[in-house]
Structure formats: structure tokens, C-alpha cells
Amino acid sequence: MELIYPFIILLILFILGVPIAFSLGTAGIVGILFITGDLKVLMSMVGLVTFDAVASYVLSAVPMFILMAFLSSSGGLATDMYRAAQNWTSNIRGGVAIGTVFACGIFGAMSGASLAAASVMSEIAIPNMRRLGYSEALTGGVVSIGATLDILIPPSILFVIYGIMTNTSVGKLLLAGVIPGIVLGIFLILCILLWVFFRPQDAPRAEPVSWSERWHSSYRIWPCILLIFIVMGLLYAGVATPTEVAGLGAFFAGLTGVILRRLTWTGAIQAFKGTIRISAMIFMVLIGAYIFGYFMTLSGIPQKVITAVQAMNLNRWVVMIAICLSYFIFSMFMDELPLMLLYLQITFPLITQLGFNPIWYGVVMAIMVMMGLVFPPVGLIVFVVSEAGRIELSKVYKGASILIIAIVMTLVLLMIFPEIVLWLPSTMK
Amino acid sequence: MSRWIQIIEKGFTILAITSTFIMVCLTAADAMGRYFLNQPISGVYEITEKYLMVFIVYLAFTYAYQEGANIRVTILVSRLPSKLNLVIRYFVQAFSILFVGLLFVSATQINLERFREVVDLTKRLSLPLWPAYLVISIGLLFLTLLIFFDLWNVKKGKSGLFKEESSGEPVSM
User: Fold this and answer.
1) Which residues in chain A touch residue B96, judged by CB atoms under 8 angstroms apart?
2) Which end of chain A is more exposed for a tag (fewer CB within 10 A), N or C?
3) Could you tell me if A414 and A365 are in contact, meaning their C-beta atoms sit under 8 angstroms apart?
4) Contact A337/B170, CB-based, under 8 Å?
5) Digits of tens for pLDDT over chain B (173 positions)?
6) Mutate to test the interface with B, among A51, A337, A381 (most CBs of B within 10 A)
7) How far is B56 from chain A (nearest CA, A)?
8) Do A252 and A226 contact (CB within 8 A), yes or no?
């Protein structure tokens, strides 16, 4: 019964607005103290966490993937990509919106940070779509949902953290997101086509671009192709570890910017500052989650959950749907990273016990995170798009709430056909 | 005092940025050396894991704090009357001092016990781990002090804990 107290404390601290990292850590400390009753043991555990949660070679991919995203956007690669994608889709109604989805997908293959993608794409795509007369709901919705592609398409920081927390192969997880990412992109394009079919006034036809202009803009995106080749090719071939891929990706993103003379000194410093700021924030949450994780392990709560669920004799898909629904509800009130870390500690042992593949669950978890990032009231991507694109928040939510159907359809498809997730990692060398 | 804090924070930020730069260059050079020249750089794994990661994270804590990079659930407190909200902010600030202070004490205790530990880079070369442990303690101590001195900024709305509250700090995933 006393095991419930840490959870009550966690809830109270969340409600009071204590930083989530500190709330998780405090709840964990109280829980460990309840179980061991020994202050010395507690201090040793907490002390060890400060080093163990950070000193990890695999986790060093996180700051390097973040840096890669910042350097790619500072070097102007995203602008080139957007222009090329827009030119190739200029002859169809809604083509600029579809081009934005392509650009988001390709940018996703060069960065692992969906909020960076949302910010960059808002600044590039929204003024152009506004100039062409696209409705604000469609514009905001397309950029918001398009930016979430970053989470699925490698490199993805979420998969690195998931892999570390669950002892799952990070390389396989990163590759597992490729096909679901493409499927989501296709669904999103279909949704846009349907939208403009029923409401053509939301997406006026743009002036078609000449073929020479299309080829010319495509020629400028060779650095993007090189970066994607480095990330995807090395990962798939098993030639480099995810950390090495992150290092090479960040290095080449910077080098390309310098060679093309697009990366300024100020831009580079800003990229590094952004990287250390976001990394510090992520690792503070990880330290809190590690302390809470110690408590969970000592308490045996995951095993108790497994026993309780098995006693109910439920179909495993009922359990899975219940997990997804409850996650979706909690994500309305809480940020995605801490929620994922908290959820994993409770659900992951249960999921594996029920026979679900950990890699498949990682991708499902990523899709749940994506939904949380664009759904009210705490849809962080929507906040970023609204702020960076200067679109009213309610209009961005309106667009995202319609286009979120694409994410839901992808989730359903992955549940029916898990092979969509598992095939590519199974062919990995 | 605030001038000294700014100077130390700037120094920490420069060191964290330099560590990030070194980590990227070392990792890339190691990977290229291994696959193109069959000549990896010895010790990159250990240096990245035991030193650079610790330097980047713990030296960046103060910068991240000052920039308002704290994830909080604000959906409920933001709806409270301003006086009650201020009381809660003071509580959150004081609570944060206690938590980070506890991290500092526990980390320093355990690090003092492990002060003589070394990491083997090659069969012949070992490096002491104390610089990494020292950076953890220094980073946490400075963060504790920073949050403490910010107690006087809570009322002015300038505390690092409550910056960027309205938009929500992006978790980069």
C-alpha cells in the first residue's frame, strides 16, 4: 500500500508545476527510502545515477543528432530542399502543401529533432503558403503533422532514448521507423488531396514551374542527399554504430555548411548553444527517470502489473489498445519525453511478457508521442508552428486535428501489419 | 554576485560547446579511421563516454537553466490567481534548491569514494576519472547556487525556472 505514496507525491509535484525531472527524482527518492529504509543506500543510488545516466557512449548520439539538425538548418539545406520539393509538385492543386510534406520528410532524414523541424519548416513554408493564398488551418496543420515525421524517420532521438531505456538495438529501432514514416507521408498526402478536393478555396492552384527550374533546384539539394546517404546507408549496412553515424552526420552537416559558405560563425555558435541547452534538458529528465526507475525495479511494480493483467485474462490487443488510449489521454497534460520514460517503466515489461516485439512497440510508442505533440492542450509542435509562423493557435489546432487522421491510420495499419515495422530491421546486416 | 555568476556561466557554456565540438570531431575521425584506413583512434569510446558526455551535460546545466529549459506541467498552475501562483512559485523554487542540492551532496559523497578510479584507454595508458567526477560536483553545486540566488528573482518573474512558461519548452524528439 505504501508504494502508492511515491505516485501521489509525483502527481502533487506535477500539479504544482515542479520541473518534471525533479518530480520524477523526488518520487523515486521517496519510494527508495520507503523500500530500503536506509539513507546511506539511497544516497549511494542517487549519487551513482548522476554519473551512470549521463556517461553512455550510445547516448552521446543524442547531442550529436541535435547538432546535426541545427547545423542542417543553419546551413540553409532545409530552404533548398523545400524549394526543390515545391517546384516538383507545383502543377497539382495543393502541391505546395504536398511539397512541404516531402521537405519535412527529407529534413527528418537529416535531423532527429521534430521541434527543430517544426521551427525551421514554419519559417520557410508558412510565408510561402500564405503568399499563395493557402488557408491558415491547412498551412498550420500540414507543417505540424509533417514535422512529426522527424520522429519516425532516422535519425530519431526518441529511438536512441527508447533503445537505452529498454535494452533494444538502437540501430534496428532507427531503421524500423523508415517504412512507417513513408506510410505516414503517403497518408498525409492523401489527406491533403482530400482536403483540397472538398475545399479547393483552401489551396489555390500555384503557377507551374518550368522543367529547367525543377532540375536546377534539384541540383542544389545534393548535400541533403549526401547526408541522408550517410545516415541511412551506414545504418542499414551496419558499417557504423548509431553514435558513429551521429558523429559523421553532425560533422558533414557542419562541413557542408562551411564549404558552401552558408554556415556563419554566429550560426554555428547558435547551433552549438541550442544543442547543449536541449541536451542538458533531456539529460536532466533522464536523471530523474533513472532514479524513478530504481524505485520501480526495487518495488517490483511492473511484475505486479503483469500478474494483475494476466489474472484478468484479457486479449493482448485489448491491453495494447488500453495502453495507447491511456497514453493519449495523459499526453494531453504532460510533455512527451517524461511521459514516455514514465510509461516505459510500467508498460514495457508487460508488453514483452504479452509477446509484443520491443522494436514494434518502440515505433507504436513513437506514433503515440507524435499524436501527443500535435493534440491539444499541450501540443508542443502546434505551439512552435503557431509562434514561428504567426498563425492563430486555434487555426493550427484545427488543421492538425483534421490531418491527425493520417497518424491514426498509420497506427492502425501498423497494428494490423506489424511487418511494416519489422521487415527492414530484419534485413539489416 | 550576478556578474560573477554570468562570468562562470559563460565559461561553463564555452567549455560545454568545446566538448561537443571535440566529441563530434573525435567520433567522426574514429569512424572514418576505422572504416577507411583500418586505424581506429584508441580511447575515443572511453573519452566520449566518461569525460565528454559528463562535461557537456553538467557544464550546460547552468546555461539551460538560465535559458528557461525546464519542462513543467503548467496547465493547472497557470489558471490560479496570481497571489497563489506566486506562493507556489516560491515553493517550487525552494523545492528545486533542495532537490539539486541533494543530487550535489549524494554525487559528491560517492565521487569522493571513487576519486582514485581510472579508465584504461589502452593496455598501457590509463586516465584518472576524478576530472569527470569533479565536473559533476561543480556543475551541480553551481546549479544549486544559481537556483538559490534566483529566489530573489521569483517575484520579478525573472527566475530561470519560470521562463518560457507560456509557450512550453520544446523537448527535442
Assistant:
1) 18-19, 22
2) N
3) no
4) no
5) 678 888 999 999 999 999 999 999 999 999 999 888 888 888 899 999 999 999 999 999 999 998 887 777 777 787 888 889 899 999 999 999 999 999 999 999 999 998 888 888 777 788 899 999 999 999 999 999 999 999 998 888 888 888 755 344 444 45
6) A51
7) 7
8) yes
